[in-house]
Each structure stands twice: as structure tokens, then as C-alpha cells.
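Provenance and format

Records in this collection were gathered into a single text stream. Each protein contributes a sequence line and a C-alpha cell line. The two records reproduced below are adjacent in the stream.
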Amino acid sequence: MVAKEMTERQMEYLEKAREAAVAFAERLGHAPKSYVETFGCQMNARDSEKLRGILLSAGFTDTEEESEADLVLYNTCTVRDNADQHVYGRLGRLGGNRKNHPERIVGLCGCLMQEPHAVEKIKKSYPFVNLVFGTHNLYAFPELLFRALTEPKRVFAIETKTTVLPESLPVARKHGFKSGVNIMYGCDNFCTYCIVPYVRGREVSREPEDILAEIEHLAADGVKEIMLLGQNVNSYGKGLALPATFAGLLRRVCRVEGIERVRFMTSHPKDLSDDLIIAMAEEEKLCPHLHLPVQSGSDRLLKKMNRHYDRAHYLGLVEKIRAAVPAISLTTDIIVGFPGETEEDFGDTLSLIREVGFDSAFTFIYSKRTGTPAAGYPDQVPDEVAHARFDRLLEAVKAGAEERCGRFAGQEMDILVEEENRQQGYVTGRTPHNIVVHLPGSKEDIGQIVRARLTDPRGFYYFAERVMNSKCTVDSKSIAFCHSEEQRDEESRQL
């Protein structure tokens, strides 16, 4: 079945799901509520917006309270073991509360569901889970939802690959002023520690005209900031009928009227082109922030990780980027405890951190993933050694980041306000460099770009005062602990 026919089929099933949801509501005695939780990356977050959009179109009401939901759907991640265990722990709590919600539908989707051992565990240990589907079945969610609403048996749908992209189905965006846009799916890199190519599949790029049409629609709907998403956006264009590059796509996106900021995630160092660096220097709408995962500073480990670059190549890219965009914010990913890592290897990572000077870093202890080459390596690093190195890594990253963040003190910047702060009279937003800023404001500012002076650097975030109101000052002591739990979690991962 071709993609167009499959999409038409799913729209037909969406109508059937609406009818089934009416019957479901009659059994419940109230309009059904749905709860979708995202585990993992920005790609999963964008997928969850599609899941919510389909549920809303089918007649469900979205709720942020899992306890009151009649349908609970976890969009899972499997990059690290703690993500798996988090899902299982949440399922255990759901199962324990089953008697209070006998009609509740429980579903699992996403990357973890592409792993056969995880699916078998769900079948055997969590009999109350009604619906399970993988990353390649997202496009068929209307049909799967209909089945879950109408069939007494459990629904399992796991494909190993697909040519149908879920881009024509309803979407419920989390924010009205910014949006992610998938430009490609899958990954061809096969880093030895990473499960993503096995659960997300091989790289498939979307046609540039389809991407631009989506962005034009978002701009017309009031979106100001776009985040282009892919496991490795730098390799965008593979397999397309007409030649296309990521740098070329970026330039076209920056021409879309109404879009004021353009970001992208994630870049692989081996595919970062000179054309992309030039585009970042020339295009005013491109935010001066680049997330460029290095993973390790050791050439020996980089080769063992199958990263296809060495330390010198990475440092050369940093030099080129900073020459082109001097004020750029550079962030990265770093793994400690990779199999075979010695103290010398770890020392190479610490020295690279000092040499580059990252604005922040996501730091991880290596997590063995079944099915990846590294999982079978005989020289696994003892947990106590990995954790000790991790603590030292955090200190190195924190010291460098505090120094880098402080360079903007006293400068005026445009802040895209994203949410109200828990401290009354303040809001939280981000600079073009992706630095979190707390400043005076109200809910009317959400989604607006306001001018502010960065006054008080705090390592990974700033307090600021609004430029248009000279009387506004920031009492940093009174709001120093006003971060949301989500923000605190994010900052702790970046320390």
C-alpha cells in the first residue's frame, strides 16, 4: 500500500475512532480524557504532539493529570537503562491503581517498544497494558486507537521498518509560539553504544517542499521559532529525488515570512560542512547555538565508538565555527565509563572540555544497550569507577560553563518568553544562544520576544531586567529557587 493510500486509510479510521470514543464515553459516564507522557528526545516530544492531536480529533480531552485519565499513553525512550526502568516503575504504579480505573486504556509506544525483549516483558508482566506499538507504527495510530477502543484483546503492532511518514495526521502543539519540525527520520551512523539506528531505522529525509509547506503553515498560525529535528540533521538530503543539503534547507527556512528564529538538533561532527558554518554566519534568523556531541576526548575511544572523527577534527570544527560566529553558544554530549576507558582516556576528555569551553553539556554514564556492539565488549568499566569519573566530569563542565555564561553579563538581548515563573511577576524565556533567562513579566508576555539586559549570571541561566522599564529590577535572592521541577532536572543534567 502506497503512502497516500495509507494516509487516507488512517483518516477513515480516525472517523471510526470518533464513533468508538462516543461509545467509550457512554460506558464511562463522562467524556473520555487522555494523558500522553513523553520520555526522551525532541523527536519523541514532536511525536507526542501528533499522538495528542489524533486523540483530540477522536474526541478525547487532553489532561495533565494522569490520575484522572481514561487513556494513558507513554511515549518511551530506550537510549539508557534508567529510561527503561522509569517506564516500568510508572507502569507498576498504574497497575496497582487498576481497580480504581477498570475501563482505563493503557498504551505504550516509542523506541523501547521496538526492542523484542521489552515487548515480551510487557506481555508477561503487565497484562493491563492494552496497546503497544513501535516507532514505525506511529502513522497508524488512528487505526490502533480504534482497535483498542473496540477489541477485547490486547493490541500489539511492531513493524521493523516503514516508508509511511506520520506527517499528514492531526497535531496538537504544546506551544503556540514555537514548534519542532521533523526533517528526517532514522540514523545511519551505528555508533557502537547507540540503540537508535535499531529502533528508529535507517535515515529517511522528507522532501524540502513538504518541510517548507509545513513551516509556512506554522508561521501563519503564529509560530515564531522553529526547531528542525533529526537524529543527524547534517546528513539531510540522502535518498531524495533531487539533490538537497541541510545548509540549503536552512537558508530556505530562514526565508519563510513570520518565522523569527530557527534552531536545529542534532549535528554529527563528521557531517558538519563548511556550507553550514557559512549559513550560520550569514543567516540572521539562525540562532547562534550549536549542539555538537563529542562523546569523548580520546581518539582511541572515538574510534572504538565508531564516531568517524578524531579529537583534532572536532577541535578544528570548533575553531571554524567560532571564527565564523564568535559569540556562538556551543553545547555537547559526553559519555564516561565507555568500555575500555582508562584514566588516560578520561583525562583526554577533561582536557578537551577545558580546551573547547562548552556553554553546557549533557553528561552520561555509559549504559549497556542489548543489541549494540559495545554491550558485548569484554572490558566494561566498573560502576564505582564510572560514577567517580562522572562526578569529576560534572565539576569540569560546571566550571567551564559558569565562565562561558558570564560573558553576556550586562548585554541586551531579545528573549523569547516561554512560561510564567512560579514567582509572581516574573517570566522565563531563552536568548538566541538558548540560555534560560528569568525576568519581570506576566502571562501576556508568553510567546513574545522582549528586550532585556542580562544582569546576573548563575552558571546556566541569568536574571535580567527589561530594557523598556528602567524601574524593573531583579531581586535574585527572591527568585533564585523559582525554577520549575522540569527546569531543575534539565539544569542538573547539564551540570
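Adjacent record:
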Amino acid sequence: MNTLSATGFAQIIYGVVAGITLLRGGLIVRQMRYVWRHRQHIPAAFSEQISAVQHFRAAEYTVAKNRLALFQLALEWVVFLGATWLGGVAALSSWWARHLTGVLGQGVALIASVLLIITLLELPLDLYRKFILEQRFGFNTTSIAAFFKDMLLQTALGAALGLPLLGAVLWVMLKMGGLWWWYAWLLWVTFNLFLLMIYPVWIAPLFNRFTPLSEGELKQSLQKLLKQCDFAAEGLYVMDGSRRSRHGNAFFTGFGRNRRIVLFDTLIQHLQTVEIEAVLAHELGHFYHKHVLGRMISIFALSLALLWGLAQAMHQPALFAGLHVNMSSAGMALSLLIVALPVLALPVQVLMSLASRRQEFEADAYAAGAVEAEHLISALVHLYRDNATSLTSDPWYSLFFDSHPNAQQRVAHLLALAHEQPVTE
């Protein structure tokens, strides 16, 4: 059986990367043009709740975010080319080989330095996003000092938790033979479950203040809803999201005995009690339909397939040669995977987005049975307006990238469910 040469691998890989990059860029441009073209046309379902000025602002915000996404896309392309075709990863590997003894230490140092370089390259975009784009539209509430404090804390936490995991994975790759990918996957799954367990209690409080929801009408309403939906949680908490942004949100965190419901303080400030109850009912819909568990299983299955694929690739020296790398060490293989994933993940992203949109409809349907559908519609309209979310979206862009149905689809679906019976299970 014939195998591909280094040139053959190079042609396929760089061709696929170029094709995916151009496709993503084209879809982003389509979205920008579509939103801007409809900036003065408010969809009929929102004409009474959202003004022309607010709709125009949402279009400007969406276009600005997508313009930044084009720069992010270009950076990912440059990182991939720099790491492979220009020999960046090979040069880093040679440098660490000269300064460290031991394959394990060299591998950890190589991957850590790749991650650090990517972080530093993305820093200007992060600063622009926070202090120019978000500032321009009135969402940013943090300072430069707080931004860098968060960044340093995240880096330190990532090093404290990630470097031991990285060392363990590389050790497995070096010592466990042909089935290393299976044992590495078990390590990865165990680590992620451990993070889910400790995150709400030990990690999240390092970045935000979480206070129990105070007694009153809101807490009583939410507790009644939780009892109605047979959902047990460690508590209801308010997070000081306003310290960094004016965007509002609500989410579940943790699992088992550490499971918490968290409301942004901005959400409480901007929504009425019945609207917050509807938002929580939607989140409970995800729990009822086991969406969170399903997503976790999907991610774990994808990571298993990815590690197996990496194991097969490591038996193809021509593939590494085609990427301008003369060795197929464990550290080198993982480094190349890190720089390639953002560029090559589009097919998986499409499938995940499709599943996510379906799940959002299911969660909305559950909420429409647990509370008044009109209350969820009202909450969504408030969130669309307050977060400057575009009410229009290019269909092809939505197909590839949107994790939620667009505003018009979602409201139309809820209106159709408005008279259905409450959930009784």
C-alpha cells in the first residue's frame, strides 16, 4: 500500500487549512454585510420593544465584533504557518533540547512556551476587544490593572493545574506503548471532572464574588420553580459580573453536591422577577433534557477520537516532514495539535452548533411549559436589547457558527408554544 510523501502531506494539510480559513473568512464577511444591510429594518416581532437607534447600535456592535474576528482568524493562520512552514515549533524544540536534559522536561517546556507565545500574540486583540470595542459600546467596566491581574492569575492557575497534567500526559505517551492515547484520555477525563467539582468552590471565587441570593420575592419565586422542576442545587448565588462588564447572564456551575445556580448582578438589575424566573426555567430545561451531560459526553468522545488520531499520525514521519518538522516526539506532536486545532476545528464546530441550536429550542419549550412563554420572550427581548445582540443574521453564517437560534426564530418558536400546558414531570 502506497503512503503519502512529505510533499503530498504538505499539499493536503496546507490546502485544507487554506480552504477552511477562506471559508471562515467568507462567512464572517457575509455576516457583516447581511447585518449592516438590515441595520435599518427592525423585524416586525421586535418593532414595539426595540427602537431604531437600539437596532442600529446592535448592528454596529455585531459588525465591529466580526471585524475583530477576521483579525483573530488571520492570527490563527499566521500562528499555524509560523509554527510549521517557518519552522517555529522546530526551532523552539531545538532550543529546549540544548538547555534541558530529559525528553519529558523538554516536552513540557516546549508545549508551555507554545501556549505562552500564542497568549502573548493574542494579547493585543484581547486588549482591543476589552478597552476599545467593548468600551466604545458601553459594556466594559474593568480597568487595565484589573485586566492584567486577571491575566496573571489565570496564567498562574493554568501553570499550577495544567503543567502537572501535561507532564502526566507526556509520561503516558512515552511509557504506555501503543495504547497511550487511551490512558491519556482517562487522565484528561479525570482532570476535567475534578475541575468541575472544585471550580465553583475554589476557582471561580478567585475572580468574582459570589454571594447567596438575598431573601425576598425573587428568591422565593426561584425556589418555588426549582421545587416544581425537582432540581436540587447547593444554593442560589449572585455574581458581581458588573465588575468587568455590563452584559448579563445566568448559568449552572459544578455538579453533584457542589452544583450552584449563578445569576449575574446585571441580570437582576435589568430584568423583572418573572423574567429572571423564565431565564432560570430555560436553564432548567437544559438540565431536564440532560444537555449538559450530553455535551460533556460529546466532548469526551471527540477528545478520545482526537488522541487516537494523533497516535496514528505519530506513525507517519512524512506527515511531520511535510509540516517542516524533523521529529515526531510527544511534545512536538501535542504542540502541532495545539496550533492546528483552532484552524481545523470548523467541521466539529458546525456539528456542535447544530446540536446546540436544537437544544436551545428544547430548553425554550421546557421553559414555556414551566412558566409563561411570554415572560421568556420578554426576558429575551430585554437581553437582546441590553447586550446589543443583532436581531438579524446571515443564514449561512448561522448554520456554521451560531450556538443559539437567531432572535426571530426563537421568539416565533416561543409564540407557537405560548398556550401549551406546563411541564408536570
